[in-house]
C-alpha cells in the first residue's frame, strides 16, 4: 500500500536537505545565476551530506544505504526549491553512479564506484540530448558500432552538465537500433568538449556540447556488459527526478508569490483578498500537490521494480506544464515587480521553462 508519509529516516534526510537549501543555497542562488558560477564550498558542503555516496554499498566504499527512488525524489524537490542549477550540479554525479549501481557489471562497480565515496566532490555526468530538431531518446543519432573488441562512436550531444570537469561520462547511443549506455573516460581520443552553452535558465549550471568523432572505447565499457542496460528504466528514473525538481521550483514560486500577495496592500487590503489572486494561488497549490503525488506514485513503483513507464511519462508531461503555469502566475501576481530582478520569480520562470528540454539531466 502506498504511504503518504516519509519513513523516519526519509524525514531526517528531508529535514537535513531542507535546512541546507534554506541556510546555504538560498543565500547565494541569485549571485550564482548572475555570475554563472556555484561556490565550491556549497558543492563541498552538499557532497558531505552523502546524498549520492550513501546509496553505494559498503563493498565499494560507500555507506551501504538503500537506493530509493522515493528518497531521491524527496531530495530532488528540496534541493530544487533552493535552486535548480545548484540541485542539478550537486546531483550530477548520480547520472553516472546510479545506472552503474543498478545495471553495471561487477567489474564496472568495482572500478568506478569507489571514486565517489571520498569526502571530496567528484564530477561525473551523462550525455543524452542531441542538438537536432525532433530529438527522440529512443531514436538517437549518436551511434555505437562494435568491432568485436570495442565500440566506435559518432555523434553530437548537448546540455551535458559539467562535461568539462567530468572524469567520467555515461554516453547514450544507438546500437543496432536500441539506446544503450557506454562509459567514456576523460581524455579518450575522439571525445571533444565544446564551449560552455549560454542558456536562458539554469545559468549557474555549466552545460556543454560534446562531440564524438571516431571515439573508441573498450568492450568492457558498455553499461551492463553483454547484457546491456534497461534504458527504459533509466528514463523513468530521470522523469521522476525532473518531475520532483519541477515541484521544488514551482513550490518556491508559489510560496514567494503567496507571501507577497498577503503583504502587498492595494486599495486598502492585501491583494490576496482579491478573488482573482486567491483563485490563482489556490490552483497553483492544487497543481503542485497533484504533481508531487504523481511523482511519488511513479517512484514507489520504481522502488518495487514494477513497470512505471506510464506513471513516469504522465507525471513528467504534467510537471512540465505545471511548473510553467505556476512560475508564470507567480510573475503575474507580483505585477510589474515580477518582471524585475529584484524579485526571484523571473528566475524561477526561466528555469521552469526549461523542463521540457531537460531529458536525462537528473535521475533518482
Can you count the helices?
Answer: 10
Q: What is the percent of helical residues?
A: 40-55%
Biggest sheet descriptor: 4 strands, antiparallel
- Supply the CATH architecture of the largest domain: Up-down Bundle
Strand content: 15-25%
Shape: globular
CATH superfamily of the largest domain: Butyryl-CoA Dehydrogenase, subunit A, domain 3
The domain tally reads 3
Quick one: how many beta strands?
9
Name the CATH class of the largest domain: Mainly Alpha
Radius of gyration from the CA trace?
A: 21 Å
Distance between the termini: 21 Å
Within the CATH hierarchy, at the fold level, what is the topology of the largest domain? Butyryl-CoA Dehydrogenase, subunit A, domain 3
Low-confidence stretches: none
What is the typical, i.e. mean, pLDDT?
A: 96
What does this 3D model show about the protein?
By secondary structure, the chain is of the alpha+beta class. The protein contains ten helices and nine strands. It has helices spanning 8-35, 40-48, 69-82, 84-91, 94-103, 106-112, 231-263, 275-303, 309-333, 345-352, and strands spanning 124-127, 143-146, 150-161, 168-175, 178-185, 191-196, 207-218, 265-266, 269-270. The strands form three sheets. The protein has a four-stranded antiparallel sheet with strand order 2-3-7-6, with no helix packed on it. The chain has a three-stranded mixed sheet with strand order 1-4-5, with helices on one face.
Topology:
Blueprint: H1 8-35, H2 40-48, H3 69-82, H4 84-91, H5 94-103, H6 106-112, E1 124-127, E2 143-146, E3 150-161, E4 168-175, E5 178-185, E6 191-196, E7 207-218, H7 231-263, E8 265-266, E9 269-270, H8 275-303, H9 309-333, H10 345-352
Parallel strand pairs: 1-4
Antiparallel strand pairs: 2-3, 3-7, 4-5, 6-7, 8-9
Amino acid at each position: 500500500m502506498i504511504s503518504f508519509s516519509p519513513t523516519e529516516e526519509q524525514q531526517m534526510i528531508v529535514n537535513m536537505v531542507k535546512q541546507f537549501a534554506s541556510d546555504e543555497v538560498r543565500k547565494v542562488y541569485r549571485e550564482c545565476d548572475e555570475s554563472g558560477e556555484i561556490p565550491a564550498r556549497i558543492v563541498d558542503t552538499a557532497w558531505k551530506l552523502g546524498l549520492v555516496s550513501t546509496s553505494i554499498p559498503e563493498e565499494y566504499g560507500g555507506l551501504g544505504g538503500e537506493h530509493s527512488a522515493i528518497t531521491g525524489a524527496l531530495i530532488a524537490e528540496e534541493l530544487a526549491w533552493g535552486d535548480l542549477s545548484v540541485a542539478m550540479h550537486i546531483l550530477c554525479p548520480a547520472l553516472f553512479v546510479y545506472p552503474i549501481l543498478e545495471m553495471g557489471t561487477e567489474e564496472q562497480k568495482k572500478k568506478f564506484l569507489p571514486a565517489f565515496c571520498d569526502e571530496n566532490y567528484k564530477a561525473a555526468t551523462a550525455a543524452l540530448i542531441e542538438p537536432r530538431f525532433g530529438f527522440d531518446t529512443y531514436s538517437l543519432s549518436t551511434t555505437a558500432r562494435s568491432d568485436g573488441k570495442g565500440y566506435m562512436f559518432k555523434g553530437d550531444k548537448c546540455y551535458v552538465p559539467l562535461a568539462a570537469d567530468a572524469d567520467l561520462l555515461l554516453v547514450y547511443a544507438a546500437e543496432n537500433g536500441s539506446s544503450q549506455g557506454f562509459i567514456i573516460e576523460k581524455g579518450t581520443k575522439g571525445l571533444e568538449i565544446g564551449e560552455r552553452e549560454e542558456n536562458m535558465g539554469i545559468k549557474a549550471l555549466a552545460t556543454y556540447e560534446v562531440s564524438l568523432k571516431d571515439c573508441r572505447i573498450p568492450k568492457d565499457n558498455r553499461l551492463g556488459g553483454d547484457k546491456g542496460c534497461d534504458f527504459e528504466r533509466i528514463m523513468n528514473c530521470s522523469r521522476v527526478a525532473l518531475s520532483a525538481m519541477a515541484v521544488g521550483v514551482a513550490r518556491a514560486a508559489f510560496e514567494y508569490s503567496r507571501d507577497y500577495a498577503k503583504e502587498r496592500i492595494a486599495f486598502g487590503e492585501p491583494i490576496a483578498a482579491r478573488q482573482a489572486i486567491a483563485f490563482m494561488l489556490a490552483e497553483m497549490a492544487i497543481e503542485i500537490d497533484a504533481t508531487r503525488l504523481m511523482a511519488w506514485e511513479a517512484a514507489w513503483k520504481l522502488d518495487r521494480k514494477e513497470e512505471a513507464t506510464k506513471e513516469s511519462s504522465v507525471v513528467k508531461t504534467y510537471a512540465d506544464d505545471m511548473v510553467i503555469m505556476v512560475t508564470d502566475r507567480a510573475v503575474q501576481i507580483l505585477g510589474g515587480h515580477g518582471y524585475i530582478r529584484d524579485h526571484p520569480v523571473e528566475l524561477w520562470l526561466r528555469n521552469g521553462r526549461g523542463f521540457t528540454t531537460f531529458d536525462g539531466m537528473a535521475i533518482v
